[in-house]
Specification:
The chain has 407 residues and is mainly beta. It is built from 4 helices and 27 strands. The chain folds into 3 domains: 48-143, Immunoglobulin-like, CATH 2.60.40; 149-248, Immunoglobulin-like; 252-406, L,D-transpeptidase catalytic domain-like (Beta Barrel). Helices cover 11% and strands 38% of the residues.
Length: 407
Amino acid sequence: MRPVTGASARGRRGRRGLAAIAGALVLSLAACGGGEDSGAGSGNGKGKDAVKGGQSAAAVTIAPKSGATGVDTSGALKVSVAKGKLTEVTVKDEKGAKVAGAITGGGASWTPSRHLAAATKYTVHAVAKDSEGRESAEDASFTTLTPQNTFAGTFTPEDGSTVGVGMPFSVHFTRGITNPDDVEKAIRIRTEPAVDVEGHWFGNDRLDFRPEQYWKEGTKVTVDLDLDGVEGRDGVYGEQHKTVKFTIGRNQVSVVDAKKHTMKVTQDGKTVKTIPVTTGKPGYDTWNGQMVMSEKLTVTRMNGETVGYGGEYDIKDVPHAIRLTTSGTFIHGNYWGGGAFGNFNASHGCVGLRDVRGGYDSSVPAAWFFNHSMIGDVVVVKNSDDRTVDPANGLNGWNMSWADWKK
């Protein structure tokens, strides 16, 4: 037999080489192709879509679509799932603050519990499971609208202040509000100790909050004004996000008797001083009712022209003046009243206490009362021949029943 030489030997070596390559390809295809139990995705069996050997049937949808701009701050964001249940939804703004929301419908959808801020980028991460427990995830990002027209609220009391037991939290808006429920929902009030606090609208630009009874002394109140992004009226959005804190001081309520010409000053229910006063004379009677101190002025000018009384008076240096109504009712020092205090009514509707011109004497009744009063204290007038003060005239919502207040 002749030995194999030349091309024949090379041909056999070539066939063996081809066979080896073919074998390697078979192994390679077996490794990459998978079998019927192989999952999709990463191919290592550890990805979310490969749990229990198969792609999840759960299909997560995020509205608005990723990359969307000019998104409305209310009603546009929603996460839903078909053929599965949501197990996790996380929405964050660009600073990492989470948006509160709830999964509802047995896991079918998620919506935010509050409005979104304007001109803000948000990211959404949602996870769902199908009936086999296989997970599916979806991510998106979008940016909310930048409003062309805005509103804000000015408020009282000031942040960090200590106020009397009658002080409501009152907000005046720079634009008339036509979506009051949305705006009221955006103002959250927390108290220590806890007490039910409700809001009441006076017209369309003022919203006051108070408890059923006067605040308990020492109560700490925290108000979150989360107005940024709230659509207060069509096309007009809030631009304010602020936290306000104030504390309720000692309980002082002063009761003026217009017929007896006296005022009893009580603290914690006990009378600490009785002061002779003069109230509105016939035709200019003082309002009855509960009135809350809203401003303190060491000296001020009082001109009858400003309250519809023509030129009947113009006193440029009224001392120790405390405002009780927006319309111009004050309890103040009076150095021109002569013998009226404790004897007869001589004012144009205010409550007058004996004082000296310039207010320099700290021992007179008006100075004592001014120095022992704070914004938010209550003055109650009774037995006057006039009607009860309008609750909207000043911070005087206490003249409404709790049922009417909550309407």
